[in-house]
UniProtKB/TrEMBL annotation:
UniProt source species: Chrysemys picta bellii
Gene: SUOX
Family: Belongs to the cytochrome b5 family.
UniProt domain Cytochrome b5 heme-binding: residue ranges: 1-79
Name of the protein in question: Sulfite oxidase, mitochondrial
Oligomeric form and interacting partners: Homodimer.
Role according to the record: Catalyzes the oxidation of sulfite to sulfate, the terminal reaction in the oxidative degradation of sulfur-containing amino acids.
Subcellular location: Mitochondrion intermembrane space
Length: 79
């Protein structure tokens, strides 16, 4: 049976599988951003395969328009 979109996101949790995250209902393939993240590779990979919101709630540095602009460049779909 076809799996749901959230399950598909969850299959992309490493650089080898590609790294997908969600923000709201939008889905992003951030594989090419991992090495560019100002907060480091290990931090951004914590959100791999799931939602950004719980992490961004802890790191308010992301509550800026320029951060969302970066994210939009990696959009691949919607839930
Ligand atoms: C900083 C983007 C995910 C932790 C930043 C900055 C950007 C950014 C642009 C610099 C902001 C500024 O100084 O104006 C992103 C994007 C993410 C992401 C696009 C997802 C695709 C995460 C996650 C975490 C995280 C999941 C934590 C688990 C941090 C921390 C900093 C930071 C700690 C501050 C680094 C410093 O100034 O020393 N991020 N981030 N980020 N990010 Fe992220």
């Amino acid at each position: 049976a076809p799996s749901s979109a959230p399950e598909e996101v969850g299959r992309h949790r490493s650089l080898a599988e590609r790294v997908w995250v969600t923000y709201g209902r939008e889905v992003f393939d951030i594989t090419d951003f991992v090495e560019l993240h100002p907060g480091g590779k290990s931090k951004v990979l914590l959100a791999a395969g799931g939602a950004l919101e719980p992490f961004w709630a802890m790191y308010a540095v992301h509550s800026q328009a320029h951060v969302l602009e970066i994210l939009q460049a990696y959009k691949v779909g919607e839930l």
